[in-house]
Amino acid sequence: MHDDLIAAIVDWNPLLAGSLERTTPLITSARLDSLGLVRLVMWIEEHVGQPIDVTAIDMRQEWDDVDSIIRFVQRRGSHK
């Protein structure tokens, strides 16, 4: 799942190709712009299997890197 998310993020922002690791900061470093964040929410919702209330979480803390995003999905979802 980590590799799938990394591939998706690189697809959203090809400039990140080759520089994106599982622990690379995404939100605190502004590597994801607003459209990237929307796409990330959609990716997470797809993998969790339900809508996510983004106002109820701290994205900077819970979704700042691929590892933390995958942990969030595994806690909340169906593990697609």
Write a structural description:
By secondary structure, the protein is mainly alpha-helical. It has helices at 2-12, 34-48, 59-62, 66-76. The mean pLDDT is 93. The longest helix has 15 residues, at 34-48. It has 4 helices and no strands. It is globular. It has a single domain, classed as Non-ribosomal Peptide Synthetase Peptidyl Carrier Protein, Chain A (Orthogonal Bundle), CATH 1.10.1200.
Shape: globular
Strand content: under 5%
User: Count the strands?
Assistant: 0
**Strand and helix order:** HHHH
Annotation field: number of helices = 4
Under CATH at level 1, the class stands as Mainly Alpha
End-to-end Cα distance, whole Å, is 8 Å
Query: How many structural domains does the protein architecture include?
Result: 1
Helical content, roughly?
A: 40-55%
CATH architecture: Orthogonal Bundle
Determine the structural class based on helices, strands and strand pairing.
mainly alpha
Rounded radius of gyration (Å)? 11 Å
Mean pLDDT metric: 93
Query: Biggest sheet: strands, sense, closure?
Result: none
Query: What is the name of the CATH topology?
Result: Non-ribosomal Peptide Synthetase Peptidyl Carrier Protein, Chain A
Notable traits:
mainly alpha; Non-ribosomal Peptide Synthetase Peptidyl Carrier Protein, Chain A; globular; 80 residues; 4 helices
Q: What's this model, at a glance?
A:
The chain has a single domain (2-76), classed as Orthogonal Bundle (Non-ribosomal Peptide Synthetase Peptidyl Carrier Protein, Chain A), CATH 1.10.1200.
